[in-house]
Specification:
heterodimer; A: 236 residues; mainly alpha; B: 509 residues; SERTA_dom (chain A); SERTA domain-containing protein 1 isoform X2 (chain A)
Chain lengths: 236, 509
């Protein structure tokens, strides 16, 4: 009985392997000169490893100070395709139109999808806010007034929180690990009201905390901008 | 016309150290053997026969000497120049472009420098030297910058260089990094004025009270000097990374394209540009496509095309509206269902788009193919050429190591009959549109002995590998040829392989 069960499983695995072979992550490193190829991941998680790889790439891309937009967009689109194929029943609006409806299931995949889209959306939105701020001297009509309150930023960056717990295997210690080596001494000034740090993780580095502060008022913003930009003021 | 140059001097400014060739005309840009003779070779193969004219090594950053440096430092730096295996990442060539006559060849590198080579003039004494390119001018075009507002470093890497057609004795080119476009003037000076009244020969001011007679300053010949000066700086107009610039056929305007926008500039005006394409969605969450390349039509100053990361090309007419968000033509090939995979979109992303010289066709490069489109047919290309289809089964690995995101360029020859593009392992491919024949050649030091034949290469896909073939698994993916250029009228090509610039010539020439 046990033997026949074992045999049956093996056949199914083989079939699955054939089906996903085309997309299977070839983990052999034949294009590098180093070492023997590592063992192939078990077929049942073959697509998962491609998914994981894509999430890893997305992570890496998002971590760049200025992400390569083309790379980012291509990885995200590929990730959505993979998600759609892995969970075809659950692949609904989440794939095509953000923000996705929250997934009711508790599996890692679904929550990753929601978190992913949200964080992706949030980060792109955030990018656009930051870009907007830097457009001050530009004569062209731009995306929203440059004077848009920095309160817009927290929504985007705050979404980074989701990346941590959702893709737990990648960021076991949440956001702390992400910002460990940022030197924040320049931010340790009373310009950044203590109130600004409320509601965020106490260990969260000030560099991120300050930008997430929703209570930074416009006078302080003006002051900061003047300091950073010199005599250039933001157009209102 | 031009004298051989004993040394090259640049106009000193606070930003640009003087550069001086330490020795000889070819200086450090010799073949590894040190011999200045051109590496010519013979006999044929496939598509005409290509010979290596010269291999030029872009000098390391260390070699940019200032006049004030002492002798010892200069000696140390000279030894760097001779050590051909020493190359910093700053030396990686990031763009190559012939000017409109083919007399000049410009390269830009990751370190923000532009090096211009000039073609050796034909002379009775040294007929065999013709076709060789030597350094004409080199200057620091872009410096690394820091955006304080975003806390970001702006790379100084030169993304593109485009020449302006020559209208007087000076040469003009546009060079751009991720954010700023600059117009450079490269001019020669072979005379200098002497005999000033108010200055003495060393340039010191004279006390006017000591001047008893007046004289007229005269121009006296001097050693030829090539100066590069920045004439215009077009900044602060791009939020995202500039990927293309294109000079309009009216020679008065040009465009610069980043991931989401295209701006139109007038050469004379630096504080304003017109936004002509904007694909930024209102909600960045909805972003699914970026602009990857853009180019003006060679003859119609109102027409341009831009390509996208989804494999589409849009042709726009600026007469239709001020903002060309609605295209006039939309070129897209339907996806082949049998080739569908998770990576379909990535490999369909167009990395380069080029109008033919005639203006009738456009050529696009995506990851695995080069396609030629007729402007009058939008639903599919008229020709498709497989560059390295053997990689189709390796897409997953190439995705993992990010090679799948490599952006290869493509070029037309002068008569639009042959197209060329690069590949991996220092291979580059040429496709003859008329005979439908193609050839794979290699640009590498090991395989380009002096007077050796440039042999066609072949990649073996299946089991049995013939003697000269290379198996797919042995390809070196770190050696990629992304940038190539073809002389506008002759069969001379420039191929950039990391920090090396190879110049090949058709033997028949």
């Amino acid at each position: 009985m046990m033997l026949s069960k074992g045999l049956k499983r093996k056949r199914e695995e083989e079939e699955e392997e054939e089906v996903v072979e085309k997309e299977t992550l070839t983990v052999d490193t034949w294009w590098l000169d180093s070492g023997p190829p590592t063992a192939q991941a078990p077929p049942v998680v073959a697509s998962n490893s491609l998914f994981d790889l894509s999430v890893l790439k997305l992570h890496h891309s998002l971590r760049q100070s200025e992400p390569d937009l083309r790379h980012l967009v291509l990885v995200v689109n590929t990730l959505r395709r993979i998600q759609a194929s892995m969970a075809p029943s659950a692949a609904l609006p989440s794939v095509s139109s953000p923000p996705p409806a929250p997934m009711e299931t508790d599996n890692l995949l679904a929550s990753s999808d929601a978190a992913l889209s949200a964080s992706m959306a949030g980060l792109l939105e955030d990018l656009s806010h930051i870009e907007g701020l830097s457009q001050a001297p530009q004569p062209l009509p731009d995306e929203g007034p440059p004077g848009r309150p920095i309160g817009g930023a927290p929504a985007g960056l705050g979404a980074l929180d989701l990346l941590g717990p959702a893709t737990g295997c990648l960021l076991d210690d949440g956001l702390e690990g992400l910002f460990e080596d940022i030197d924040t001494s320049m931010y340790d000034s009373e310009l950044w009201a203590p109130a600004a740090a409320e509601g965020h993780k106490p260990d969260s580095e000030n560099g991120l905390g300050k930008e997430e502060a929703p209570v930074l008022d416009e006078a302080e913003l003006d002051y900061l901008m003047d300091v950073l930009v010199g005599t250039q003021g933001l157009e209102r | 016309m031009l004298l051989s140059l004993p040394a090259l001097h640049l106009q000193t400014s606070e930003h640009h150290p003087l550069f001086q060739l330490p020795h000889g005309r070819l200086g450090p840009w010799c073949s590894p053997t040190g011999s200045p003779a051109p590496l010519s070779c013979e006999a044929g193969c496939g598509e005409g026969s290509w010979i290596l004219v010269c291999r030029l090594l872009v000098p390391t950053q260390v070699s940019l000497l200032s006049m004030e440096e002492d002798i010892d430092t200069r000696k140390i730096n000279n030894s760097f120049l001779r050590d051909h295996s020493y190359a910093t990442e700053a030396d990686i060539i990031s763009t190559v472009e012939f000017n409109h006559t083919g007399e000049l060849l410009a390269t830009g590198d990751k370190g923000g420098r532009v090096v211009i080579f000039q073609r050796e003039q034909e002379s009775k004494n040294q007929v065999h030297r013709r076709g060789e390119y030597n350094v004409y001018s080199t200057f620091q075009s872009h410096e690394p910058e820091f955006d304080y507002l975003k806390s970001l470093e702006i790379e100084e890497k030169i993304n593109k260089i485009r020449w302006l057609p020559q209208q007087n004795a000076a040469y003009f080119l546009l060079s751009t990094n991720d954010k700023t476009v600059k117009l450079w003037k490269v001019s020669e000076r072979d005379k200098r004025p002497e005999g000033y009244n108010l200055k003495d020969e060393e340039g010191r001011l004279r006390d006017p009270a000591t001047i008893t007679t007046l004289r007229v300053p005269v121009l006296r010949p001097m050693d030829l000097m090539v100066e590069a000066t920045p004439r215009r700086v077009f900044a602060n107009a791009h939020t995202y990374h500039i990927n293309s610039i294109s000079v309009n056929s009216d020679y008065e305007t040009y465009m610069s394209a980043d991931d989401l926008r295209i701006n139109l500039w007038n050469f004379e005006i630096t504080n304003q540009s017109f936004n002509i394409v904007d694909i930024k969605p209102a909600n960045m969450e909805e972003l699914t496509e970026v602009i990857t390349a853009a180019e003006f039509h060679p003859h119609h100053c109102n027409t341009f095309v831009y390509s996208s990361s989804k494999g589409t090309i849009r042709l726009c007419d600026m007469r239709a509206s001020a903002l060309c968000d609605r295209h006039t033509k939309f070129f897209e090939e339907p996806e082949d269902p049998s080739n569908r995979s998770f990576f379909s979109e990535i490999i369909s992303s167009i990395s380069d788009v080029k109008f033919s010289h005639s203006g009738r066709y456009i050529m696009t490069r995506d990851y695995l193919t080069v396609k030629v489109w007729d402007l009058n047919m939008e639903n599919r290309p008229i020709e498709t050429y497989q560059v390295h289809d053997y990689l189709r089964s390796k897409l997953c690995s190439l995705y993992e190591n990010d090679c799948i995101f490599d952006k290869f360029e493509c070029v037309w020859n002068g008569s639009d009959s042959v197209i060329m593009t690069g590949s991996y392992n220092n291979f580059f491919r040429m496709f003859d549109r008329n005979t439908k024949r193609d050839v794979t050649l290699e640009a590498s030091r090991e395989n380009s002995k002096p007077r050796a034949i440039l042999k066609p290469r072949k990649v073996c896909v299946g089991g049995k590998r013939r003697k000269d073939e290379i198996s797919v698994d042995s390809l070196d993916f770190s050696k990629k040829i992304l940038h190539t250029a073809w002389h506008p009228s002759e069969n001379i090509i420039a191929v950039a392989a990391t920090n090396n610039l190879y110049i090949f010539q058709d033997k028949v020439n």
